[in-house]
Amino acid sequence: MKYPIWFFRLLFGSWMTIAGINHFYPLFPQPMGSQPLSNELIHALLDSHLFDLVKFVEFIAGVMVLTGFYAPLAVVICLPVSFCVFYWDGPLEGMTSIAAIYGDAALISNLVLCVAYWKSYRAMFTLRAKPRGLGSADAAGEPAKA
After folding, report:
1. Contact yes or no for 29/35 (Cβ under 8 A)
2. Range of the structural domain that residue 130 is part of
3. What's the sign of the alpha-carbon dihedral 70, 2, 62, 124?
4. Residue 57 lies in a domain
5. Sorting pLDDT into bands at 50, 70 and 90, what band is 76?
6. How far is 111 from 76, CA to CA, in rounded Å?
7. C-beta atoms surrounding 97 within 10 Å
8. Least packed by Cβ within 10 Å: which of 29, 41, 76, 132?
């Protein structure tokens, strides 16, 4: 199972990194949308400069996924971006469009990586979690003393 996860990490991390770089140093044209709603959304993102933040997050998180540096955190950070890419490429551009394939691939790759890092997230789903005090032994990663 190790090699398929590496494949997804390389594919997804490369895509995120290149998509982030492309906004600041154009390598290929940014799709502007062929449908009225997708075109309006991309123009709103560009005009509000929110797209700058999205592309910065894509770049940083993509590099983190590629290098494995805080990869579980980077995969979670990418999830809202991947969902928006899926939504823009699928429902807004049309589920039968070529763009929908890329949106599906982005979201599926991100979800596969989330599942692969499930053990890293497991503690967040504790039903009745108790906050740890700052400076306590268990906050530093050491086991709590009973």
Report:
1. no
2. 2-140
3. negative
4. yes
5. very high
6. 9
7. 16
8. 29
